[in-house]
Amino acid sequence: MYAGLQELGVANGEDLKETLTNCTEPLKAIEQFQFPLRVVLQTENGVLLPSLQYALPFLDLHGTPRLEFHQSVFDELREKLLERVSAIAVEGKVEERYKKLEDLLEKSFSLVKMPSIQPVVMCVMKHLPKVPEKKLKLVMADKDLYKACAVEVKRQIWQDNQALFGDEVSPLLKQYILEKENILFSNDISFLQNFFSPSPKTRRQGEVVQKLTQMIGKNVKLYDMVLQFLRTLFLRTRNVHYCTLRAELLMSLHDLEISDICTVDPCHKFTWCLDACIREKFVDNKRARELQGFLDGVKKGQEQVLGDLSMILCDPFAINTLALSTIRHLQDLVGQDTLPRESPDLLLLLRMLSLGQGAWDMIDSQVFKEPKMEAELITRFLPLLMSFVVDDHTFTVDQKLPSEEKGPIPYPSTIPEAFTKFLQENRIACEIGLYYILHITKQRNKNAFLRLLPALVETFSDLAFSDIFLHLLTGNLTLLSDEFALEEFCTSLFDGFFLTACSRKENVHRHVLRLLLHLHHKVAPAKLESLQKALEPTKQSGEAVKELYNQLSEKLELHKPSPAEVTETPSMELPLPT
User: Fold this and answer.
1) pLDDT tens-place string over residues 275-309
2) Does residue 248 contact residue 285 with C-beta atoms inside 8 Å?
3) Residue ranges per domain, the chain?
4) Where is this region: Disordered (predicted)?
């Protein structure tokens, strides 16, 4: 509590201990120590105001302890001193004000462990752009001091201690991933509000992004460290949410106009332009030209930038925007009678999708080169998707014709073999195909959905069973809620798709339970009973699955109609006439 007083020439407990240890008459020694100390403290360190000579006895009459009075004076002086330190930090020439602060730190640092003085010392350190290294080491070595110092001081410690900075950042990164997963597995299922609903600016206001932004400040070295952590974790886990955080962090610094960092990050302008597209959920012609300019502007010898650009394009929010824009372009091309290879905007979208989907391979191999796009994707797969759009239009128009003019055109039920093969072997084709299925589900196009659903059982890297796709699909299926009463629909959806992966993929199990929690009242009782048995957790199932299953069981129990009381029905027979 009184650490550092001795260095300033003020007697403390150690002096008394020394005196008592080396004396023959302890009582006399205590008196000799106590009296001069009290006199010195009162005369030299007291509040030397003539008016107090009469005021203090007046306070005594009111029973106010002298300690309380001096403590209040001390607190007031400390506040004034803190204000003065903050004022010194901004007034006068730079060299002069920092010299004053350094001198003040030198005089006060010995008292840094005194709780009453510590805020002043910490305030001085906070306003110094470069705290002496010796003092930083002393702060770092003491857990309490390290915890108490301002983030401005911690930045100076972190920039030379990557392991310590990693320990501070790691819990935030785990929290960020957990928050994303909680959204994907939320029990609130809706096609209006989903994972991609919040705007980029809203997402950047999240706790983790704001804390990381504050921790980095204007320090380029710390920013580079965080980016390195994100790259390493992305490589280790393949979790695309780290790509989202990479983009959000850069744009958060952009919002604060931290030019020290934004000007040195070569991805800044590209990310800024892409952020505007994500906000609109569409890449228009003007922004497409800008994005193409950034990609074409990567000079020889700077190919490493492609690694960061690919990571930003791997962000699920970027992939979502590019895929939605691709589906929209394909629909426009159908109306224009134009082939995909004749649309430069569509080719650019495919180029960016390809770069984003190849992010992991590029960073892992350290071969910074844009992946080559397969010609068949453009010449065969996309025209195949366009033919599905034509099938839908043809069937819709035919249904609207008067009955006498209708032709015998049933809705196509078979899937071209090439479509299934593309979904299994080509990542970009698979991503676009999945978004087309989400599109037709959102259009309440039951026929098209049931036609293409079997193709989802086997897809590239099981993308059809990824959390993001299943989160969006379950949300869109709420639009087809009335169809869940039909045996054929439920058999195709549950038996033909979901249940094929439930036993081997726990996340699919969770998404099916989420869907049934929301739509169980629409499903036929017999089908619901069989699904309940099929979805019963095993011993190996995680707690999340068990919890969801219990919630579903409770809802079904409440939903069961109570057995009607059996009452004797009166006889309807009339008595025979006599």
Assistant:
1) 999 999 999 999 999 999 999 998 888 889 999 99
2) no
3) 49-158, 160-375, 417-549
4) 559-578
